[in-house]
Each structure stands twice: as structure tokens, then as C-alpha cells.
Amino acid sequence: MSWKTIAVLLVVALGLGGYFYYDTYWLVPAREKAESVKGRLWTVEPKDVEAITIKRAADTIRLKRVEGGWDMLEPVATKGDRGPIDEVITSLATARADREVASNPPKLAEFGLDPAAAEVRIEVKGRPEPLTLMVGAKSPTGAWVYAKEGGKPAVVTLSEVTARDVERPAADFRDKTVVAFDRKAVTGIDLDVDGQGFSLAADEPGKWRVTKPGPYRADAEAIGEFLDKLESAKAKEFAAAGTPPAQLGLDKPSRVTLWIGKDKDRASKTVSFGKVDAAKQGVYVTRGDAAGTMLAPDEVWKAVPKTVAAVRDKVVVPYAYDKAVRVEVESTRGLVRLDKDGATWKLTAPEALKADSSAVSNLLWKIRDLRATGFLGEGPADVARYLAKPEVTVRIWEEGAKEPKTLLVRAFSEKPGGTPAAVAAVAGQGPVMLVDGKAVADLSKGTADLRDRSIFPAFETAEVKRARLIGGGKVLVVDRSGENEWKVVEPSRGPAKEPRVSDVLIALKALRWKDIVSDKADDLARYGLDRPDLEVTLAKAGDAEVGTLLVGKREGDVTYVKLKSGPAIYAVEDKLVSDLRKAPSEIPG
Q1: Helix, coil or strand: residue 159
Q2: DSSP state, residue 53
Q3: Which ranges constitute the DSSP H helices of 194-313?
Q4: How far is CA 57 from the centre of its chain?
Q5: DSSP string, 531-576
Q6: Tens of pLDDT along 75-90?
Q7: In 3D, which of 145, 202, 416, 442 has the Cα closest to residue 316?
Q8: Burial class of residue 522 in the structure, from the number of CB atoms within 10 Å of its CB (0-12 exposed, 13-18 middle, 19+ buried)
């Protein structure tokens, strides 16, 4: 191929490439833009609109674009609501004429245009003169509205959406945020509610304390919920201008002042709360920097802390549940000591026994979740006054701590509101708190409550490869044949119902004794265990036995059982062994 041919091909390729680029990046966008503005009243883009005025018989709405949104200049000077304003701006700036109904009508009144229902004035960036539009009556079908561009004689029809846009009440365009703030930036709150004043401070986000009166620990969850409600609150409506404050309960309001930022950058925002309107499910509020009065959702007022007690931290004994390594409970039932043993717990006093981890966890949860319902005193002197003789003393050692946190509890002699109560406090600290009266019983745990009550040796269900059940002189043996499959191998081979086998394994894992009735071998006949009704054996791989349970006679709502390998005879709730009794007849098949 000669160099001339290559040169020609290169020129052709460059020409085609240039045309493709020109078509793709110039002609196509130009055609698309031309198509998008076809039929529009104006060839402007909504983003270029800088101001809009909608003049109606009852009022005039004037809006101006500002950095980050819009301001309303009329009928009140306030911040605008960007969402609905942008919606209307887009609708009006891109309005399309459907058809021309009269080129130069002698009587505009026939189209509702003299006077017009609304006059729209749109100021556009880069245009010296504003765009104007007169909007009149709707067509007989209601699908269109008559309109006329300023300076043009023709009357055209526009979508009735235009009529809805210019008829929207001024309140639609007002910012409905009750108070704008970032809750993470709030460093203080002053409250004056029904004449009671108190103050809160956050040393860091989410960690609050009461500073006046006080100092007290504060309830961060309650404060966070209040700030969430206030931050997201939107006005339901606006009170009519000129309404007397007394009529809305704002002559003597409750006030919430938020302090934003720190040091020299610290600023405040105050919201005043007036009367609750039960019918409208709202509360009247004003903001120092806002025009007019808003009706905010009443849930905002419900979240406002009304008293110091409402914002005080009601956790009786703060501690890290997962860091507890030793617990002592001293009550009328004696002293019990528990020590963490890896992932489980063990009893170390009054005797060394395996502990029931679930029961210990339940005790620790009850301590962790203990909450004050009221406050009786504040310091160590009040602790000595109210809890000189506690009924329950709980000591909790946390990982790495030399000294325990000591909780003191006793029943309260009075019944606030007719409900039994207890008094609780951390020894040597305070405050002294009222708590639920059940706390004394809930925390008075003895050895029998906290020791391990499981009967069958521990096992994982996936490790069990064989189960043998003997009852009524018959033997049933099932072997695991897959991850979740079992088969009968004795008395004859056949299928087994996997759910029924699983019920047996679960029943053995969950079996807990109610009482230890005997540990003497000569008592077997008395409890029907010399000739048990049922014998259940589990084995792992290689026929390594997990354990064998003997099920004896039933008396009332209990059944007597024992492990074949041990002397103790247990009473268990009969319902706990019901699946075991049914298993020999239900597993096959």
C-alpha cells in the first residue's frame, strides 16, 4: 500500500472521527435542548430563576433565591421552604402552551383575566426584564387554565397544574422547621418549664450532666430523644398574624434554649412553647429569629423534659455488664459469691459449684436495668440515713478494678402512689433512689437460685451420632446418617423422623431440676427408678457415651429422673419430659 493511499485513508478517518465527535457532543445535545424547550412559554432554565412574585387578590408572595435555598420576602420576611418553591419554579419556568384560544380578545374578563386570578413575575439571571404571566379562569372541562404572557395579546391554555401552583397558600412556601440545628453541635440546654428552671451541659456529644441544680448525672437517652424530636419537628400550620399571644398561651411561655458550639463560637437558639391544641394535636411555638407563630406537633412538647427528675440519669448502678468478673449477693438467704470462669460462671461461696450461666446473666441484667422512679437524697449522708440496714447488698467487681461497686437495697416503708417501692443506692456515693418494690426479691438470690440445674451432661447436638431409647420392654436405636438425617437401626432398619429426634436432643439439653429429692441409692424404688419407665442414652462417634437418663414415676406435675452414672434423684416439671415419653412411638417412620 502506497503512502498516498495511507494518507487518504488517514484523512478520511480523521474526518469521520471529527464528524462523530461533532455530532455526539454538539449536534445531539443541541437537538435535545431544542426539543426540550419546544412549546414552552419561555426558553429559560429553573436554575436561572433568581426571584418570583405571585400577586393575588388576597395576598402577594415574593420569594428570592439566596445561597443554599430561598427567602420569603412577602407576605412575611422569613426563610423559605426549598422543596415546594423549587417545585413551583420548575413548573412555571417550563410551562407549555397547549393552544391559542384567542389572538387578541376584546374582553379579557371572559377568560378570567381582567382582573387576573394571579399575576406571576419571574426574574431570570442575565435578563434585564422579568418574565410575566397572567393566570385566569379554568376552561369548562377543568383540564386547562387560561393565561396570557405580559406584552402579548394572545390568550393561551396551560395545564391546570399552573392554576394549582399559583393558588398554593403562602404557608406552603414558608420554612416549616421549628428550629434548625445539628444535635451533635449542642453543648448546653437551658429549660424554663412552668416556672421551674434547670440547665444541662454536654462535655462531649451524647454525654450529659445536669448543672443546675446539681451536678447530677443526666439521662442521655431521654435528652437524645428530645433533641431528635425537636430537630425533626415541622410546623403543621401557622397562626394568623396578629393573634394575641395570650390566646395561644405565649404570654407566659415555657422556654427551651439550645446552646450551639463552644467558647467564642457559642450561640443560642430559643424556642417558646405556648398552649397545646388537643383538637389539632399540636402546640403553639415561636422562635426568636422567626416571624410568626407555628403549630408544632404535640409530640415535641411531650418530649420536652418538664422537671429535673425527668432528665436525671435513672441508672442505679452503672457498670459494664461484659466486664463483671466477680459478684457477691448478701441477703437473708446468706452470702453467695460468683466468679467468672472463662465464658461461664462458678459458685465459690458458700460452696464450690457450677453456676447456671443463664441465672447469673439474668441477675446481672436485673442489676444493670434497675432504674430509679424517684430520688430521696443525694450524698453519702443520705445513703447512711436510708440504707443503714440494707436487706440486699450486691458487690460487683469489674475487670481491672480493685474495689467493687456496692449496691444497697431495702424495702421502702411507704407506697408512693399505692405501689410497693424499694430504696437503692451505691454505697458511699448516692444518690438515694426509689425503685420498683420487686427489686428486693429479684436480687435476693441464694445458692439454689444460681447453681447449675442442668441434669444431662453437656453436649452439642451435631456431635450426637446415636440415640438409644428403652421403654416398655422395647428398644429403639437411631443412628445419624447425614447432617440432618437419621435412620432406625433397631429393632429393625427403617426411616426415622428427624424433627422427633431433634426434640429428644433439645429436651435433654434443656432439662433442669426443680428439686434434688434424694442422693441415696436405696431410694430408687420409691421414685420408680429401679424399673424406669424410660431410659435414654446418647453417644458420640465411636459409640462414646454422652450420658444415660432414667425416667421414673410421675407424681402430680413432677416426674423423677436420675443419671445412670450418679446417685442424685431429681424432681423435674413433667412437661419437660413429655417429648421424651412420646419419642419411642413417634420417631420411627
Answers
A1: strand
A2: E
A3: 220-232, 298-303, 308-311
A4: 47
A5: S-SEEEEEE-GGG-EEEEEEEEEEETTEEEEEETTS--EEEEEGGG
A6: 999 999 999 999 999 9
A7: 442
A8: exposed
DSSP letter string over 344-384? EEEEEESS-EEB-HHHHHHHHHHHHT-B-SEEEE-SHHHHH
Q: How many CB atoms lie within 10 A of CB 59?
A: 11
Q: How far apart are CA 216 and CA 580, in angstroms?
A: 56
| Cell reading at 334 | 446468706
132 C-beta neighbours (distance < 10 Å), count: 15
Query: Phi and psi for 276 in degrees, rounded to 5?
Result: -85, 130
Torsion of CA 402, 405, 410, 413, to 10 degrees: 130
Query: Can you name the residues that pair with 344 across neighbouring β-strands?
Result: 341
C-alpha closest to that of 317 among 212, 204, 443, 414? 443
CA pair distance 69, 60, nearest whole angstrom: 20
Backbone angles phi, psi at 157, to 5 degrees: -110, 140
Q: Which residue bears the cell 405565649?
A: 250
460 DSSP 8-state letter: -
Residues 400-431: pLDDT tens digits? 999 999 999 999 999 998 999 999 999 999 89
User: DSSP state, 527?
Assistant: G
For residue 187 the three cell numbers come to 453543648
Helix (H, G, I), strand (E, B) or coil at 427: coil
Task: Give strand ranges (E) for 213-281.
Answer: 216-217, 237-238, 254-260, 267-277
Residue with cell 429549660: 191
> pLDDT band for position 34 (50/70/90)?
very low
